[in-house]
Amino acid sequence: MIASSQTIALDELSPAEQETLHCVASHMIPPSEELGLPGATDPAIFADILRSIGRDLPALRQALHAITEMAGGPLAVLSSIEQRALLSRFRSGRPDLAGVVEAVTVRCYYRDDRVMSSVGMEVRPPFPVGFAVPQGDWSLLEPVRSRGKIYRDAD
Amino acid sequence: MQSVTRNEPVDVLIIGAGASGAAIAWSLADTKMRILCLEQGDWPRSSDFPSTGRDWEARQSEDYSISPNRRGLAADYPINEDDSSIKIANYNGVGGGTVFYAGHFPRLHPSDFRVRSLDGVADDWPIDYRTLEPFYALNDQMMGVASLAGDPAYPPKDAVMPPIPLGRTGEKLGSAMNKLGWHWWPSDSAISTQEYQGRAPCINLGHCPAGCAQGAKASTDVTYWPEAVRSRVELRTRCRVSRIETNDEQMATGAYYFDPDGQERFQPAEIVIMACNGIGTPRILLNSASERFPGGLANSSGLVGKNLMFHPYAQIRGHFDEPLDGYRGPPICIWSMEFYETDPARGFKRGYCYQFSRGLGPVRTATTGLADGLLPWGDEHHAAFRRLFCRSAGMVSICEDLPEEINRVTLDPHLKDINGIPAPKITYRIGENTQRMLDHSVARGIEILKAAGARDITFKSPLPYAGWHLMGTARMGHDPKRSVVNAWGRSHDVKNLFIVDGSVFVTSGGVNPTATIQAVALYVADQIKSRIYDLFN
């Protein structure tokens, strides 16, 4: 459960909205024991999600309210099976809003150190080290050269 | 009413510091005229670009979003795009769209300038490939273009430096094109592959379209502008022009603008040059309506704002069993001009190019995988992600958009920017010819990916958030009734007003326009210099 707060800032989710998002994120990306991976509701990841909503806040609120409306109250009150079924209906019925919840969640999940390492990435930003890309086999262009000119003269 | 401060006059006033404004400023600098450029945005700071932080993908949907409406920064003006199936992408600041482009740098083809004569559609340009050829070459040198000479899809042209790497993706897709017997070639890219004029070589950040922190990509804030400023061109940032003023002789006298403090000023000038892109330029011209020019400035033809062309894009992507380049390297590696020239058997006039792209970062892999139904929620998520990440490749088709007057930029009667200047309103729909071209490109794209051995192939057509290329809204031509500017960029109506951005395009071609926009700007600069003693006759 999400701790409640005495005051609700207009530029962040309310405790009830946070609770709904927490529930949705737990269904979207659960932890994996097999891979040793956290889920999207891991405390560090979820805290990152909450502080990184940015310009998606109005659309995210709309999505969370739509889910609450579909549930007839707090999503967390439903059983896990009921939650899963409702979220499946939400995704197929409101793909635009589902896309917002997904974007807000994966933007933070896939920059977590543990997740990046797990998918084979170095835990760092691209700059200043950059990456290596092989030149490739330039001889593959021989058939293109052999075919000759393909542009049209316009004179 | 607040009084308007009147500045010291200048010889040349350039409005907009993007691709074309930078090129013409640099070229005119050798005249020793007093040149001033007003730019509504600021200098980009490479240390702020997304690739410098761990939140590199997230920031591309915040302050570094391609959508000005999403960004909503002080430099941006709102755009009403409700009546357009394609949404606008731009960057407002020094460098303009070149800060956010991928550096993919094709030229138009010779046939693009003669579409009426060759294919019976639209209109011929009043200039041709041969006219622009030396300016394309000069621009390649100034921007620093990496390429491989000998592309059979073009007349011969020199390479400035070696091309960007094919990588595993280029090999994979190039091999598929060879199987099909179709043209492909490493892209001309405005990306330094070696030390070049003080710029460091590309280190494969994979972040060309969100600003290059390395400075390897040729945005004009790191190419033309430093040279122009050293040559004493003055560039004033955070100055937004609202309208052009004229006198009884129907000559432009200068421009009104809002300075960084929001104070309105008047900048007198002997010559005014518009370089604000295919939306910003008609916006200012239409907002400059007066008793002398009731339909907007330079608009006796009624064509200012009309014939708006984008390049409708279709995107086709697939996934492979073996790892490819993923998020590493310039996103675009090769192109194909196989379907560029008109073939009556295809059921449409003109054509398109493909630009082939490498993979996506982890966040975009997840968001697109979720949207495409390839990445489930729940326990299967992790395994499915691993089947997608660093294993995708594909292409977009860039389809030639024919000019139609119904596609246009007007002034929104209600929406305004933070300075109270009316916002542009876009009215646009995809024409039948273009739709057939999009459909053709999707079908051929799927064939290519299948030939490459891809699975899980998806496509989007048209791509909605792909209005990068803004063309045609102040077209050039010989006939003042059918064009806004003449063959060298001067307004038919206002003899000291020039336009050098994508607005002047008569047709769009089927390739990215930046190389041509800059070649035209250099050509117009050359015309101004060679005609300087009778420029207004």
Automatic annotation (TrEMBL), chain A:
What organism does the UniProt record list as the source? Microvirga brassicacearum
On the tree of life, the source organism's domain of life is Bacteria
Quote the protein name from its UniProt record: Gluconate 2-dehydrogenase subunit 3 family protein
TrEMBL record, chain B:
Q: Per UniProt, which keywords does this protein have?
A: FAD, Flavoprotein, Membrane, Oxidoreductase, Transmembrane, Transmembrane helix
| Native source organism of the sequence | Microvirga brassicacearum
Q: Tell me which SUPFAM superfamilies the record gives.
A: FAD-linked reductases, C-terminal domain, FAD/NAD(P)-binding domain
Presence of keyword Flavoprotein? yes
Which family does the UniProt entry place this protein in? Belongs to the GMC oxidoreductase family.
- Residue ranges spanning the membrane: these are 12-29
Q: Name one Pfam family in it.
A: GMC_oxred_N
The protein in question is named GMC family oxidoreductase
Residues forming the Glucose-methanol-choline oxidoreductase C-terminal domain are 403-521
PANTHER family cross-referenced by the UniProt entry:
LONG-CHAIN-ALCOHOL OXIDASE (PTHR46056:SF12)
Give all residue intervals belonging to the Glucose-methanol-choline oxidoreductase N-terminal domain: 203-312
Q: Name one GO molecular function term.
A: oxidoreductase activity, acting on CH-OH group of donors
Q: Does the keyword Nucleotide-binding apply?
A: no
Report the leader peptide range.
none
Q: What is the lineage of its organism?
A: Bacteria, Pseudomonadati, Pseudomonadota, Alphaproteobacteria, Hyphomicrobiales
